[in-house]
Amino acid sequence: MDKGKEVLLSLRGVEVAFGGRGHRFLAVDDVSFDIYRGETFGLVGESGSGKTTLGRAIVRINQTSRGDIIFEGEKINGKIPRELNSKLIQRIQMIFQDPMASLNERAKVDYIVSEGLMNVKKGLSEAERRRLVAEAMREVGLPAEFADRFPHEFSGGQRQRIGIARSLIMKPSLVIADEPVSALDVSIRAQVLNLLAGLQKKNRLTYLFIAHDLSVVRFISDRVAVIRKGKIVELAGTEQLFAHPLHPYTKALLSAVPVPNPVLAKKRQPKLYDPACHDYSADKPVWAEIERGHFVYGNERELAGYRRELAGR
Ligand SMILES: Nc1ncnc2c1ncn2[C@@H]1O[C@H](COP(=O)(O)OP(=O)(O)O)[C@@H](O)[C@H]1O
Ligand SMILES: [Mg+2]
Question: Which domain does 283 fall in, by range?
Fold first, then answer.
């Protein structure tokens, strides 16, 4: 572990299986990484790669079939004591992708924002509840009066702000943001990303930021993990990953990012990823730290190649 960095969340060999006999498959397959307090950890991968399932495993919606999830030093997957469960509901919050679907249409914003809080703080007075709602609304840049309205009166961006307020009011330490801007108009994505970045600084939050869009992940993340079919294939500091991707899947993903310059765009050939390029029949792959803080999934022969590539860069 790096000096001065405190591990907030640690995953070790985490697996989530779906389907019964005959068609059991691993949506999350042997995933290991640490998230440091105060950082933004980006998780990027195509649709169906297991990002949401992994996020839901951390908030205990999806059961794990193997491995350990350690939060603030305590194991939080599998069977846990009740008190730990209520603590986690408050300490780990999730922001969902679709702000149109994730808000209760029949409830006023006031109720939506404070519902979770009321569940963990039973004795909260009405005055205190209203004060906390107003504070959360202010923090996400919405007028406190909006608390008396219903979700349908708001735009997508405003609804996502309400979703963020609902998380913030819990005073979490870890926020899992699952594609929080994917469903939003391109024109308001930057506003919401900037809001999230500002809130992180102010409240010393740690983010697990999930996205399929590399430019969004690059903008907001300190480190980035690339997931494919439930497996993390590479993890590095954001600059390092974008400058020196090693795994062929990461390279293919990066080569598909649109370039704003049409001349460059014409010259650049997108790389295709062929899973058959790995021969794992005899030489089995491992999750290896190839240079400080840079992890890649590969077998001995591939890792030797990645080392040569780094040495000659
Ligand atoms: N509750 C479930 N039961 C069965 N399969 C599921 C369930 N949830 C997700 N899956 C499958 O797991 C895989 C990963 O899904 P998901 O985590 O939603 O991917 P992502 O968020 O990266 O798009 C997909 O193949 C999806 O169909
Ligand atoms: Mg998803």
Answer: 245-313
